[in-house]
UniProtKB/TrEMBL annotation:
This is Trichome birefringence-like C-terminal domain-containing protein. It comes from Panicum virgatum (Blackwell switchgrass). It comes from the Eukaryota. InterPro entries: TBL, TBL_C. Pfam families: PC-Esterase. Signal peptide: none annotated. Belongs to the PC-esterase family. TBL subfamily. GO terms for molecular function: O-acetyltransferase activity. Residues 18-303 form the Trichome birefringence-like C-terminal domain. GO terms for cellular component: Golgi apparatus.
């Protein structure tokens, strides 16, 4: 991608040319390293996007892919490099940790510690975190305190944004204790917008959403349902970190892309019902993104921040 965009993806302010994505260069820079994405299905989409951007630069016999439980591993054998994804939609341990069987409703997270997940993060040279969507399904989240696995005991409710703050602080503390800035880099990808209500961009179609949208939103000031409070929490917590944490701000640039979602083309858990087929917008996925598509741009921004940090820091 080449264009005049600032580091946060806006098209205003001091412009800088973003370098074009170079798969061979990125693989060379990853030689002997482990890159790990940690988060939910939006982060997994970005992970798959990156694999698609890279795999054509690797001969068929020199790459492999496997998934074991919550961990997916892509190996670029000629480069002795791995690019991995670890499913942890809320970063902290939760009852949503099963990579296949999980629900957004009735979420319960463990307040501390983070050992169940963080043991998989150890040794990664590049960590790319995201966590947002699962925190927005309701105003409150249940927190299980202590080490007891009995979910009937010692459960408190907390405002979702404050529970999110608590978990992000734990991630930051983990990075401070475990990440060596000389040998590793950490990034946090901001909230991925949804387009579930077309009235937000002035389309008053009853029950309208992203279904059958074929053009981006043209209003540069458009802001949908993305929680500014959650974005503020992310900014405030990451600012406390004693080790550098890069922010890949994909929110505003993705807000415009009502046309970029998988809509009815996503593989469903179950076949659509006859009623749904009669009204496709009723089961359109307005959360996840088509590939190739929006997530490729996220990776181009990540590529820029990874390998051209001097340009980023100058802004």
């Amino acid at each position: 991608m080449c264009g005049a965009k600032t580091a946060d993806g806006d098209s205003s302010g001091g412009a800088v040319m973003v370098p074009s994505f170079n798969a061979t260069m990125m693989l060379e820079m990853l030689r002997g390293k482990r890159m790990l994405f940690v988060g939910d299905s939006l982060n997994r989409g970005q992970y798959v996007s990156l694999l698609c951007l890279l795999h054509r630069a690797i001969p068929d016999g020199a790459k492999s892919f496997e998934t074991v439980d919550s961990l997916s591993i892509f190996r670029a054998k000629n480069y002795d490099a791995t690019i991995e994804f670890y499913w942890a939609p809320m970063l902290a341990e939760s009852n949503s940790d099963d990579a296949v069987v999980h629900r957004v409703d009735d979420r319960v997270i463990r307040g501390a510690p983070m050992d169940k997940h963080s043991r998989f993060w150890q040794g990664a040279h590049i960590l790319v975190f995201n966590s947002y969507l699962w925190w927005t399904a309701g105003d409150k989240i249940k927190i299980l305190r202590g080490a007891d696995n009995d979910l009937s005991k010692d459960i408190v409710e907390m405002k979702a944004a404050e529970a999110y703050r608590l978990v992000l602080y734990q991630v930051v503390r983990w990075l401070e204790l475990n990440a060596d800035p000389k040998n590793s880099r950490a990034f946090f990808v901001t909230a991925s917008p949804t387009h579930t209500d077309s009235s937000a961009w002035g389309d008053e179609t009853e029950g309208g959403n992203c279904y059958d949208q074929t053009t981006p939103i043209g209003d540069a000031s458009y802001w949908g349902s993305t929680s500014r409070e959650m974005l503020r929490v992310t900014e405030e917590v990451l600012a406390t970190s004693r080790v550098p944490v890069g922010v890949v701000n994909i929110t505003q640039l993705s807000e415009y892309r009502r046309d970029g979602h998988t809509q009815t083309y996503k593989k469903q858990w179950a076949e659509p019902t006859p009623e749904q087929r009669a009204d496709p917008r009723s089961y359109a996925d307005c959360t996840h993104w088509c590939l190739p598509g929006v997530a490729d741009t996220w990776n181009e921004l990540l590529y820029w921040k990874l390998f051209f940090p001097s340009n980023d820091q100058a802004l």
